[in-house]
Design a protein that fits this description.
- The structure is a single chain.
- By secondary structure, this protein is an all-alpha fold.
- Helix content is 62%, strand content 0%.
- The protein has seven helices and no strands.
Length: 134
């Protein structure tokens, strides 16, 4: 089966860790109200995971959403209440809409930095200051 566009082994390891923290594939699927095979398909890169589900997986697993999505910081930590799935999705969409070529996948580090900058400009500065101080 083909690997989902943008999937990396490091992302798969973070998804795997979050699934384990949430109680395994079946418990994760129940908690997220998705098909029983979906968490394993996210982990293995067989299907894309939405930003909403990244946020929800982080919540049920008790891991830092920024770590799960971008590999930043550490798995443990509290999410800031100022960062919502909608804000993350808006920032990601703005970045993706600014990609100039149809076929190129944006560099993950550049994309993460741009999303961080957009989040900071939208009032999430306190979250990033707390994360870097930890």
């Amino acid at each position: 089966m083909a690997t989902a566009k943008g999937y990396t082994p490091a992302f798969g390891r973070r998804i795997s860790h979050a699934i384990a923290c949430a109680g395994g594939v079946l418990n994760t699927s129940r908690k997220l109200e998705v098909n029983k095979d979906t968490p394993a398909r996210w982990r293995d890169g067989e299907t894309k995971i939405s930003l909403y589900h990244v946020h929800e997986l982080a919540r049920v697993a008790g891991v830092n959403p920024s770590w799960l999505a971008f590999g930043e910081s550490t798995p443990s930590g509290e999410a800031s209440s100022s960062i919502t799935p909608e804000l993350v999705e808006q920032a990601a969409l703005e970045v993706l809409l600014n990609v100039q070529t149809d076929s190129a996948v944006p560099d993950a580090e550049v994309t993460a930095a741009t999303i961080r900058a957009r989040l900071q400009s939208n009032g999430a500065d306190d979250f990033y200051q707390r994360e870097s101080a930890a």
